[in-house]
Amino acid sequence: MSKKDIIILGIESSCDDTSAAILKNEAILSNEIAGQQVHVSYGGVVPELASRAHQQNIIPVVDAAIKKAGISKQDIDVVAFTRGPGLLGSLIVGTSFAKAFSLAMHIPMVEVNHMKAHILAHFIDDATKEKPQFPFLCLTVSGGHTQLVVVDGFDDMQVLGTTRDDAAGEAFDKSAKLLGLPYPGGPLIDKYAQFGNPVAFTFTKPSVDDFDFSFSGLKTNILQFIQKQTKTQPNFVEENLHDLCASIQATIIETLFEKLTSAAMHLNIREIAIAGGVSANSGLRSRLELEGKKHDWKIHIPKFEYCTDNAAMIAIAGRYAYLAGQFAPQSISANPRLKI
Residues 226-249: what's their mean pLDDT? Predict the structure, then answer.
């Protein structure tokens, strides 16, 4: 191993996935994730249960990541961890582990902004994908966030627009709940939408100024529509599930792309990327490919394993913080409302 090699342990615990990854330079050697099934029966993430599960999972997950990478803990040069944003209890578990590991191994640690990490996942070495060139525009869509971000450098990002209420991922999950689908329902809407007609039903697209988003009105519109239809057709949802999923998904995607296209034209940027958990949605990925051809964009779509919350993205973001000498002190604490 060359002395110039930098090996980073990444820790991600912002919500309900406990993840650890080992990064050597810009290549991922392992990326282990432990999910939490306990939330399914509640229809959403319960913060207290999430933090307890992180405490149970974090040591086994880190151990698995180190073993899979074929290294020892003594080979690790730095530990990178998610400081925020996210659920406070969950973040505390990851932050506390990182601080303890740093002290025990006498190595530095770096803090990572979870939303920046989603974007920087595009810079993980992958022979099949070309990395974005600065500046680029990134549409980051997840369960808790929807943002349009102008990326001028690894640590030079500006939020151009964000959601004023609910995120796109939440709109997917809450709509799925209205349809009687189990949590997490977003992937199920995507699955059933592929068999439905996206123009079968019309839902109200939120209208917000500038480059911001809003999805709370859409959820209300879907609720009222379903309530109205089921009064006269009790089996309406079951009989029209595929068309409902396709129409809901099409409305959300259209709302996202209206803003993305407007922002790209306004800034005259042709390097366009997507990131975050919802970037795994097949409809969103297909639409980006179509819009890329239409507008002559150079598009960047992340691999599926780097869409949802994972420690690989924390490790790559941590690498750039490490190279910039941005070390975190032992006095640092989790910040659930950390901004880009």
Answer: 97
pTM: 0.94
For 284, the token pair is 């969103």
pLDDT in tens, 134-152: 999 999 998 788 999 999 9
Residue for token digits 């930098």?
A: 6
Question: What mean pLDDT comes out for the span 276-295?
Answer: 96
| Domain count across the chain | 2
Question: Which of 322, 320, 302 lies closest to 310 in space, CA to CA?
Answer: 302
Is pLDDT of 1 > 80? no
Q: How far apart are the first and last CA of the chain?
A: 35
- Residue 178 tokens read as 């209205």
- Domain hosting residue 115, numbered range: 7-122+307-323
Once rounded to an integer, what is the mean pLDDT over residues 293-322?
Answer: 96
Give the closest residue to 65 by CA, choosing from 106, 114, 6, 22.
Answer: 22
Q: Measure the CA dihedral 126/129/135/138, to 10°.
A: -100
How far apart CA 254 and CA 291 sit, in angstroms, is 11
Closest CA to 287 of 277, 271, 301: 301
Which is it for the CA torsion 259, 260, 261, 267, positive or negative?
positive
Same domain membership, residue 235 and residue 89? no
What the block records as the tokens of 201 is 């039903």
Q: What is the pLDDT of residues 208-232, one digit of tens each?
A: 889 999 998 999 999 999 999 999 9
Residue 285 burial (C-beta neighbours within 10 Å; 0-12, 13-18, 19+): middle
- The pLDDT-based confidence of 45 (bands split at 50, 70, 90) is confident
Q: What CATH number is given to the structural domain containing 43?
A: 3.30.420.40
Looking at residue 163, what DSSP letter applies? Answer: B
Inter-helix orientation angle 241-267/186-193, to 10°: 100
- The answer to whether 240 and 200 have CB atoms below 8 angstroms apart is yes
- Identify each DSSP E strand in 183-318 by its residue range: 271-275, 298-300
Of 254, 267, 58, 79, which Cα lies nearest the Cα of 158? Answer: 267
Tell me what the pLDDT averaged over the chain comes to: 94
